């Protein structure tokens, strides 16, 4: 049975976007290929030099402007049967002038998505002289920050898939192999276990574990090394996973076990602090306090977490100074770390969704230290 276009999920998201545009006192929102575009109209367009642009005016109908050769792809997406007006442009047309012509002559202020290429921002400036350009990220972020039931289901599925990869870590993580070799196997498993792509695989062994965003190197993993493994991918629905466990390849140094126990308590305290109405920064504080009180405060050098959805990093950010109250449906990582430069480090990361009575952890693999022995 066909959905009436007025009930189509794309129509309701576009209507919410239109309301946000009107409330922000801008005349239109322009959205190029990005997670924002995918969220609003379900079209997972690749960012290319040719302009694809969703135009959402504060008053009137939205339009999706696409290069003629992308028209079949746009029409095959959920946008295609939503009743959204899809406007193709031909190879020799000026698509920027086309977008300008779709806006009222009185247009004075337009908001742009955060990921729009600078070349496109500047081309819009030329096509609409005198029109003020404003950042649209906050408006778009607010639309996406509370996940629907379907979105939470998609995040939960991604969480289970990445849990299955962590559960298999002993197959790949061994003394004598390089970080790069281990990461290659992990990336294959991320796809095999239910993602359409592997987004990242951080394998930080020994001293490399003390650098939070170390990716991989040709360092050979040694017996006794602690190894930070932070991995994630994107599933078919477009939602991301992101989970960190720190392993020991054989018995680790005693000082490592000592601060790992502190970190485990801190991560649990962060997860336990999640509930509707508390601020984002209070979750950071709950985790950080445990680490600071144990004397490792100087070694926890990043925020406690970031929101996650169609992007791995999106609002809300769990960081001191963010007094945003948490609401049901917000999803984010809780990922404190302790890093001893030149020696080793540890991080534990789960995705948590705010529910009516607290937080639901979407990652279920144990946070106890897993010592891998051959
Ligand atoms: Zn990160
Ligand atoms: Zn991560
Ligand atoms: Zn993360």
Any descriptors?
374 residues, alpha/beta, Creatine Amidinohydrolase, Chain A, domain 1, Creatine Amidinohydrolase, 6-stranded mixed sheet, 4-stranded mixed sheet, 32% helix, elongated, binds zinc ion
Quick take:
By secondary structure, the chain is of the alpha/beta class.
Explain what the structure shows.
The protein is an alpha/beta fold and 374 residues long. It has two domains: 5-144, Creatinase/prolidase N-terminal domain (Creatine Amidinohydrolase, Chain A, domain 1), CATH 3.40.350; 149-372, Creatinase/methionine aminopeptidase superfamily (Creatine Amidinohydrolase, Alpha-Beta Complex), CATH 3.90.230. The protein is 32% helix and 23% strand. The protein contains ten helices and 17 strands. It has helices at residues 9-23, 35-41, 71-76, 95-102, 118-127, 137-144, 149-167, 179-192, 254-272, 280-293; strands at 28-31, 53-57, 63-67, 85-89, 109-112, 132-135, 197-205, 225-234, 243-249, 305-307, 314-318, 331-334, 337-340, 344-347, 350-355, 358-361, 370-372. The chain has a six-stranded mixed β-sheet with strand order 4-3-2-1-5-6. Helix 5 links the parallel strand 5 and strand 6. The longest helix is centred in the middle third of the chain and has 19 residues, at 149-167. The radius of gyration is 23 Å and the shape is elongated. The chain binds zinc ion (3 copies). Residues 230, 232, 242, 244, 349 line the site of one zinc ion (ZN).
Within the CATH hierarchy, at the fold level, what is the topology of the largest domain? Creatine Amidinohydrolase
- Report the principal-axis shape: elongated
Strand content: 15-25%
Return the structural class.
alpha/beta
Report the strand count: 17
Main sheet summary? 6 strands, mixed
Q: Which ligands appear in the coordinates? A: zinc ion
Look at the structure and name the CATH superfamily of the largest domain: Creatinase/methionine aminopeptidase superfamily
Helix content: 25-40%
Order of helices and strands: HEHEEHEHEHEHHHEEEHHEEEEEEEE
Strand order of the largest sheet: 4-3-2-1-5-6
Unreliable residue stretches: none
For the record, the CATH architecture of the largest domain stands as Alpha-Beta Complex
**What count of helical segments does DSSP give?**
10
Radius of gyration (Å): 23 Å
| Name of the CATH first level of the largest domain | Alpha Beta
Mean pLDDT: 96
Please give the domain count.
Answer: 2
State the end-to-end distance.
56 Å
